[in-house]
């Protein structure tokens, strides 16, 4: 089978969650702020404030406690908070590694023009047009934050064999000249193919996510993502025993 050509879309749904202080194990959270401010602190002692364009990349791995909350100024003055949080699975070899945290500021994220004035691409992680994003990742992946101009088609080159998803945050897209993906929808793509043709009906904001398949069992239970039910039970026991550390008051 020839893997060249456009990626074929599959259908999917967008899942949204929100929670207060809580534990995680076995994966990473990636939080991208579009409007407003968000503060973070966790049991490793890391923390900080991020605003529009900034990103928090938290590696829960063996276990972490964290919370995200409005900054004092944002709570006082009010406003709109718009953000996206991604959950990035870890391979079994990294699920019990030491937890970690990265603050990635907007100023440190390459903002690259797309051909023919089609828009721009913020390169959070991975590679595009010979440049690399600032996020340190444990598996090969791309996180592209894309703004598209109206009726300016753009052809994006993808790595064959990767899992790929497209989240439309604003606007409506025509994909490969035949499939409409609307605001708030998630499109999943077949692994075959090495290009994706996008055209926005108006101004559009899109997240394109792709990564090397891990090809391991996934068992999720609340804030834990492991490879087996036995590992989930161990995660619960370790959390209850206080092995995820403590939050500083």
Task: Write structural notes for this entry.
This protein is mainly beta. It contains two helices and 23 strands. The strands form six sheets. A seven-stranded antiparallel beta sheet has the order 1-19-16-21-14-11-10, with no helix packed on it. A four-stranded antiparallel beta sheet has the order 2-7-4-5, with no helix packed on it. A hairpin with a 2-residue loop joins strand 12 and strand 13 (131-132). The longest helix is centred in the C-terminal third of the chain and has 12 residues, at 229-240. The radius of gyration is 19 Å and the shape is globular.
What would you say about this model in short?
This protein is mainly β. The protein has helices at 72-77, 229-240; strands at 9-12, 22-24, 27-35, 38-42, 47-50, 55-59, 64-69, 82-89, 100-104, 111-113, 119-125, 127-128, 131-132, 141-148, 154-157, 163-170, 173-175, 179-181, 186-189, 195-200, 204-211, 219-221, 224-226.
What does the main sheet amount to? 7 strands, antiparallel
Order of helices and strands: EEEEEEEHEEEEEEEEEEEEEEEEH
Radius of gyration: 19 Å
> Which structural class do the helices and strands define?
mainly beta
Write the layout of secondary structure elements.
Elements: E1 9-12, E2 22-24, E3 27-35, E4 38-42, E5 47-50, E6 55-59, E7 64-69, H1 72-77, E8 82-89, E9 100-104, E10 111-113, E11 119-125, E12 127-128, E13 131-132, E14 141-148, E15 154-157, E16 163-170, E17 173-175, E18 179-181, E19 186-189, E20 195-200, E21 204-211, E22 219-221, E23 224-226, H2 229-240
Antiparallel strand pairs: 1-19, 2-7, 3-6, 3-8, 4-5, 4-7, 6-9, 10-11, 11-14, 12-13, 14-21, 15-20, 16-19, 16-21, 17-18, 17-20, 22-23
